[in-house]
């Protein structure tokens, strides 16, 4: 059984979907802890499912590196097989990434390498493209530049604003994340040698 730690910053909608999937009989992974870089609303989802939570507040540390060291200490203590960044709106220090790579994955609301960064949905709209997408990647030291594990296109519809487009991307993102976690747990996805 694959053990998973999830890191969030916000409401945790992807986390909720993963918690629901992991509670289904036969799902080959279990969530063992949920952490956040602030007092995130999404921690309530973990508590509802009886999953331990922790917080490593960014503001309590003098630098990104010091925060990363404290977060790494928590992740070591938990000892999960896989770490899922699920809306963690914080660039991780390279020392933390180097320690846990490639066992750390992230979702992104764009068809990478198109529109990396914090505003993937807004950037897709600004570019006037007819389609964008969702991706699940291995975290590396770049910005949304790690190996792609799964992705799917999502059309941009006439009249879309950022909120409407993002709401259509989210279900695809959730499904891809669940499929990737299942695939890693089942040995169908090899993080050491991803196919792309």
Task: Write up what this structure looks like.
A seven-stranded mixed beta sheet has the order 3-2-1-4-5-6-7, sandwiched between helices. The two termini are 25 Å apart. The protein has helices spanning 13-22, 43-48, 64-78, 94-100, 120-127, 162-185; strands at 2-8, 29-36, 53-55, 82-85, 104-108, 131-138, 148-155. The protein is built from six helices and seven strands; from the N terminus they run βαβαβαβαβαββα. It folds into two domains: 1-100, Formyl transferase, N-terminal domain (Rossmann fold, 3-Layer(aba) Sandwich); 107-196, Formyl transferase, N-terminal domain (Rossmann fold), CATH 3.40.50. The longest helix is centred in the C-terminal third of the chain and has 24 residues, at 162-185. The chain is α/β, with parallel strands linked by helices. Helix 1 (13-22) runs parallel beside helix 6 (162-185). Residues 4-181 form the Formyl transferase N-terminal domain. Keywords: Purine biosynthesis, Transferase. This is Phosphoribosylglycinamide formyltransferase.
**CATH superfamily heading of the largest domain:** Formyl transferase, N-terminal domain
If you consult CATH, what is the topology of the largest domain?
Answer: Rossmann fold
Whole-number count of domains: 2
Number of DSSP E strands: 7
Note the total helix count: 6
Q: Measured on Cα atoms, how large is the radius of gyration? A: 16 Å
CATH class of the largest domain: Alpha Beta
Biggest sheet statistics:
7 strands, mixed
Structural class: alpha/beta
Order of helices and strands: EHEHEHEHEHEEH
Overall average residue pLDDT = 95
Unreliable residue stretches? none
Portion in beta strands = 15-25%
Estimate the helix proportion, in percent: 25-40%
CA distance, first residue to last residue: 25 Å
């Amino acid at each position: 059984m694959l053990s998973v730690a999830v890191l969030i910053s916000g409401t945790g909608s992807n986390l909720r979907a993963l918690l629901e999937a992991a509670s289904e009989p036969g799902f080959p992974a279990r969530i063992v802890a949920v952490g956040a870089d602030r007092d995130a609303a999404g921690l309530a989802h973990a508590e509802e499912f009886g999953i331990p939570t922790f917080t490593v507040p960014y503001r309590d540390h003098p630098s990104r590196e010091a925060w990363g060291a404290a977060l790494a200490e928590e992740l070591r203590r938990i000892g999960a097989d896989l770490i899922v960044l699920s809306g963690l709106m914080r660039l991780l220090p390279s020392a933390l990434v180097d320690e846990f790579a490639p066992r750390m994955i992230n979702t992104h609301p764009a068809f990478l390498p198109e529109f990396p960064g914090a505003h993937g949905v807004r950037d897709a709209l600004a570019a006037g493209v007819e389609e964008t997408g969702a991706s699940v990647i291995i975290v590396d030291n770049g910005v949304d530049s790690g190996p792609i594990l799964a992705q799917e296109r999502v059309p941009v519809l006439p009249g879309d604003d950022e909120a409407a487009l993002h709401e259509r991307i989210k279900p695809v993102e959730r499904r891809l994340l669940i499929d990737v976690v299942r695939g890693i747990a089942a040995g169908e996805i090899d993080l050491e040698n991803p196919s792309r």
